[in-house]
Amino acid sequence: MDFGLSSEQEMLSDAVSRCLAETSPLDHVRACAEAGSAVSAAATAALADLGLSCMMVGAAHGGLGMTLLDAAVVAEQLGRAAAPVPFLARTVLAPLALIEAGTPAQQDNWLPRLASGEVRFSVALSAMVERRDNVTLVAQDGAVSGTALFALDCEDATHVIVADHSGRMYVTALDAPGVERIALTTIDVTRSVGELRFTAVPVEALSADGGDAARRLIAAGRVLVAADSLGAADVMIDKAVAYAGEREQFGRPIGSFQAVKHMCAEMAARHEPCRALVWYAAHAFDAMPAEAALAACHAKSHTGEVHRFVARTSTEVHGGMGFTDLLGLHYWFKRIGFDRQFLGGPEAVRAEAAAMQGWGAAAA
Amino acid sequence: MNLEYGPEYKAFREEVQAFIADHRHHAPKASARAARPSPEAEAWQSLLIERGYTARTIPREYGGFGAEPDILQSRIIAEEFARAGVPGGLANQGISMLVPTLLELGTEEQKRRWIAPTLRGEVVWCQGYSEPGAGSDLASLRTSARIENGHFVINGQKIWTSTAKQADMIFCLVRTEPDAARHEGISYLIFSMDTPGIEVRPLKTMTGHAEFNETFFTDVRVPIDQIVGQRGQGWYVANATLGHERGMLGDPDALENRLLALIALMREERVDAGRAIDNPVLRDRLAAIQAEVAAMKYNGMRILSDQLKGTGGGMAKLIVKLQSCELAHQISALAIDAMGEMGILYGGSPRERDGGAWQWNYMFQLGLIIGGGTAQIQKNIIAERGLGMPREPRLERAPAKMGREAA
Questions:
Q1: ipTM over cut 0.90
Q2: How many other C-beta atoms are found inside a 10 Å radius of the C-beta of residue B8?
Q3: Cβ contacts from A onto B, under 8 A
Q4: Do the chains contact at A258 and B388, CB–CB below 8 Å?
Q5: Cα separation of B254 and A207, whole Å?
Q6: pLDDT tens, residue by residue, A204-231
């Protein structure tokens, strides 16, 4: 019995933390944002040097064959640093899609090139999360037409794996004729999402598995945005506590006022159990597949709620300074805001969790 | 990450399961938390002690089972009894607070005299800590004990003395050194509730029941050797047990069982033609609570794992009382809301659900949020001990001679 991170995972966490402290401090995050890019070449290259760009690819295809809990450890550190690094789609979801739904030939074709960095994937699963603006994506005779929203890690991608509403996934190059890539601007400048418009684009279909693999991908994605949120919220609490200890009003540190102290205590009290929840959900994905989808819903929806509270409360503890751009606190505020909505807001995710358990009018 | 307890524990778990299957028909029907255990509950308790399923690590010479402490074995016992819905060992204040205190700080004679009958449920204790003027600021307590002819002579009043009516004995904090600093003048006494000069008045609460009492002491004479620890050290003796009480209030199995009861209720309860659990708003709240209960359960596993490694537990542990009590209260609140108009039924009314338990819980759990260290005190502890935030500056006050202030 050992509930928590292994010593290897602790080392991984430290290594990523040090790497990002060096390559992606706040000044750098700000510089990337001002340059209008969600891709820090320096931080992305440094993480690749640690071997992490192929962490989810199996050894047979030139990767490290690591687990989702390992990926969650990395995601938490990326959230801590609010690092502009394409990770979730590029490094985790794309290889998982190929591993879970690719034929052996597709895996042999794509995974080594993915591991080496020769191809850079974006992933668009939005059609499975909920339909908005009536967008549709239709595959017919080996070609895809329609629109995919919220393609993640889109900015510098060469290829995309896109799911239709049934969970069938397709691979295509983004420079193929008939593909239009439109950058979507979000609150969170540290991650890139795009809208992809397809006009009869020839695609390579992954296995027709009834959407099982795509649903696994959504579960994995939810765990990792929850992990990202965990790291970002950790920072916001640390910063609030530090600020409340330094800032003096009425002749004493504001952190000695119970009104402020209790705000910090509430953040910590609600936040701390999220850590175990995220670890458990990641472990469920790795080792308890029957529990994975529900655990991912719990982790996603609960961190979404708790960390919205943390984001606004930490900002309030910082007073007027929290509202300014000077401290840069808003980078984490927005990272948390992104994590809450992406792959489904808490209400949508809880509706899925309810349906899985037979709660809901349709199931009655 | 490894959630398996390991092969060496598999046999132990099977042994516990077999015991429960073979003996569950002897288990008392009434709640094991009734103030004064029934003969049936006492017999069950003796059987559990004999087999090591309660009082497991308490030495045999004091009436326990005498096993080496093994956190996972204790956890397996708790899990299996909770899962089977069979009452485990008695969990009263004598067992959870007094016994650990005596084991740590009692004299050999006190241990031999009191621990075994307390474990068996023959001696029931109540706790005399809080006073009307000393709640969160417990160290300001004023119940006094002067020394006279080899006796403490106690005068004052305690409040929140649950089970005082049924109790044989009380463990009680009194001020023996009125001139000492606040924390240095307190002693921890144990004495019979039959001692002349003790009056117990039921304290009726918002639930309509008297779950607590007020206990008044008028020249209550207690032999001078009925003290645990040294004179003036009572504050530190009591603090050894406050930790045990907070542990009791944050049991993740209890939360999970409340959640399962809520789910069962919401499946059962019909709103028009549908079930409450199918209502989109109610099921959304249920799913949110379910996620939070899961978080607290895994947080508990993390604490357990930290204990196995011998590391502190830190923040994960500090937040348990605050979060668990709040969550339990929310579970009851949702149950009442799921019942709609039926949710107001209480006190044995026709059509009442579950014997009015949800309304009672909703009110009583508010008491638990306040008791055992209020939510606000918990937040101070989390902020100051957990986050290292600065303490509130103390107001300049007159010298802390509590006894004289009381006069």
A1: yes
A2: 10
A3: 175
A4: no
A5: 45
A6: 999 999 999 999 999 999 999 999 999 9
